[in-house]
Amino acid sequence: AQVLGGNDDGLGGSGDEVLIMNDNGSSYRSLWLNSSGEWTVSGGGSDTLAPGQGFFVLRRAASTVYPTFTGPVGTPGSQIAEIVPGWNLLGLAEGWYNVTFSSVFGSPVSGALNSGWDGDDTADEIQVLNANGSYTRYYYAPDGNWYNAQNDAVSGSTTFLPGRAYYFKRDSGSLEIRF
C-alpha cells in the first residue's frame, strides 16, 4: 500500500486531503500535506480530533492506502464525546471492539436520546457507510431499542467497528456519551 501524498498545492489540488466535520454539522475543514510532509489546516493553525470524532480521507490517486496513526489509543469508555443537533461524524480507534450501540448510548453522561419510529423526524439516527457506498440506517425507537430501518429488526447488539464512518443525526438537544 502507498502512503498519503501531497505536493503543497493546497485545497482542491492533486494531493490527498483529510476532511473533518465542523461543529455545525454541515461543513468540513480540510487538511493537506505541505511540502515538508506536515498536515496543514485550511485557514492555518493546528487541528485536534476530539474523542470519538471521525474523518474522511479524500484519496486522489487510484491506489489503496492504509493510513497509520500514532499516539495514545485510550480505553473504551474513558472519553466523553458531545453530540450536537445536526449531523455528527463518529469514529473509533483501532483495537476498540465489541462496543455496541446500546453500550455507548445506554447511559449518556448528559442528555437523553430522542426517540421516534422510522419516518419520524424526531428520532436520533445512525447511518453507517458500507464498503459498497450504500448506507445502513438505524433509528432509536420509543421502546428503548435501536432498529435497522431496512428490516425493522432490533439492533441492540450492533457494534461500532474501527475504521468505519458513523453519522449520528440529532434533531434537538445536546447529548454527551462515553466513547
Description:
The chain has 179 residues and is mainly beta. The protein has one helix and 14 strands. Strands 6-13-8-9-10-11 form a six-stranded antiparallel sheet, with no helix packed on it. The mean pLDDT is 76.
Kindly summarize this structure in a few lines:
The chain is built from one helix and 14 strands. The chain is mainly β. The strands form four sheets. Strands 6-13-8-9-10-11 form a six-stranded antiparallel sheet, with no helix packed on it. Strands 3-2-1-4 form a four-stranded antiparallel sheet, with no helix packed on it. Strands 5-14 form a two-stranded antiparallel ribbon.
What is the secondary structure topology, with strand pairs?
Elements: E1 17-21, E2 28-33, E3 39-41, E4 56-58, E5 80-83, E6 86-90, E7 99-100, H1 101-105, E8 125-129, E9 135-140, E10 146-148, E11 153-154, E12 159-160, E13 166-170, E14 175-178
Antiparallel strand pairs: 1-2, 1-4, 2-3, 5-14, 6-13, 7-12, 8-9, 8-13, 9-10, 10-11
N/C terminus separation:
30 Å
Please provide the count of β strands.
Answer: 14
**Residue fraction in strands:** 25-35%
- Tell me the series of helices and strands, N- to C-terminal: EEEEEEEHEEEEEEE
- Summed up, the helix count is 1
How are the strands ordered across the major sheet? 6-13-8-9-10-11
Portion in helices: under 10%
Which stretches of 5+ consecutive residues score pLDDT under 50? none
Please outline the major beta sheet.
Answer: 6 strands, antiparallel
Structural class assignment: mainly beta
